[in-house]
Amino acid sequence: MSRRETIALEITGDGRDAERAASRVGRAYRDLGRDVGDVDRRARVSSRGLGSLGGGLSRIAGAASLVAGGLGIAGAAAAKLASAASDSAEATSAAQVTFGKAYGRIASAAASSARTVGLSRTEYLTAAKTLGVMGQSAGLTGGKLATFSQRLVKGAADLASFHNVPVPEALAAIQSGLAGETEPLRKFGIMLNDATLKQEAMRQGLIKTTNQALTPQQKTLAAQALILSKLGPAAGDFSRTSGGLANQQRILSAQVKDAAASLG
């Protein structure tokens, strides 16, 4: 017959070190929670889009198993914000150099470009600068140069809205047209050829007869005027349909980019 016996084992020792260690761990987690909560609040302030980042970070505050991953996400987001701010600063500097004293007009338009043309401030300044350089090559300066760029950026937004394509695609087609490559503009119903360019150049007083050859500068000026005159039903379309889903998405995307650049 088997017999069961109970053996009691008593372990004694000083547990104060363990208690102190546990206390330090608790404080560390509380500090982590505050830090992550702070990142969450900052992300939420930036925009509704970036708020999802903050919500994700706040959920990891009490979960030790996700701490490393959460901090990695925060670091990546911070890097993107810093990059957006850097891009904005570079676009600002380039536009200031390009437009000189007329930069104020460009800056004012860029400040509301998300709502007016569906481009972030950085995107607007970059587009205006690129077009401005082409205008400079045609001999334009000051206010005339600013007008040259602003009208073309608006035209690109209208084309993009009417034909439901990204604004950068319409901008690229316009830039090609100014450079003499007219094929990309055909997609938008804008036909440019040597005859129409000469007629426009003569109308502007750039040449006296259509028998004269056009210089690259004259072609740029004539092309700009023709592009704007041939927008047809697309003219003003972004403003007319700004409440539609497609343009609301463009506006929201641009606003989020502006918020990211500002926070960065």
Q: Would you write up a description of this structure?
A:
This protein is mainly alpha-helical. The protein has helices at residues 16-46, 48-59, 67-99, 103-111, 113-117, 121-137, 142-163, 167-178, 183-186, 194-203, 216-229, 237-240, 245-263. The longest helix is centred in the first third of the chain and has 33 residues, at 67-99. The protein is globular. The N and C termini lie far apart (80 Å).
Feature tags:
13 helices, globular, 264 residues, mainly alpha
Please provide a brief summary of the model.
The protein is 73% helix and 0% strand. The protein has helices spanning 16-46, 48-59, 67-99, 103-111, 113-117, 121-137, 142-163, 167-178, 183-186, 194-203, 216-229, 237-240, 245-263.
The major β-sheet equals: none
Q: Element order, helices and strands? A: HHHHHHHHHHHHH
Alpha carbon gyration radius: 30 Å
Structural class of the helices, strands and pairings? mainly alpha
Q: Helicity, in percent?
A: over 70%
Q: What's the β-strand tally?
A: 0
Q: Helix tally?
A: 13
Oligomer: single chain
- Distance between the amino and carboxyl termini: 80 Å
Note poorly predicted spans: 6-13, 42-54, 56-61, 63-68
Q: Compute the average pLDDT.
A: 81
Query: What coarse outline follows from CA principal-axis ratios?
Result: globular
Work out the strand percent.
under 5%
